[in-house]
Specification:
Strand content: under 5%
Number of strands: 2
Largest sheet: 2 strands, antiparallel
Shape: extended
Distance between the termini: 107 Å
Helix content: 55-70%
Radius of gyration: 31 Å
Structural class: mainly alpha
Amino acid sequence: MQVPTVSLKSGASEQSGPPQRKNNSYQATLWQRIVQHRGSYLYVAPMFVLYLVFSVYPLFASLGFTLYQWNGIGDPTAYVGLDNFKRVIGDSLFWGAFIHAATYTVVLVPIQLTLALMLALILNNPRFRGSTFYRTIYFLPVVTSPAIIGVIVQLILTNFGET
């Protein structure tokens, strides 16, 4: 049995697969796409700024506050390092709350997800008689609350003919 041989023509490379893009050309095309769609980024920019101001900054600021002795009012002045974490780990109230939250997560969340999935499957079953009625009853509080609030606000803001 003979093993087939492969000959390389002049100028051919031994590299198999698609040709590799150079990093600079990819960055150039990415930048060109960003510039081309800059209007879309302008629409997203206000939400991105709000996200940074109300989510990212408070997250990092609160991480910084954990290193200070601070009562929540005024400026934190006394740097305590990791002593706050040592005190929390040694607190029995913390461990009670932690066990309570862990129990809630491990026990109740799977039960709620299972019941919600079962209810959704039952209500979407075409053979189930009255599924439209039960869907309406289930969804009615979601619809009526904003409607009632709208009527109440309208009554509050109406001057009933007074000038």
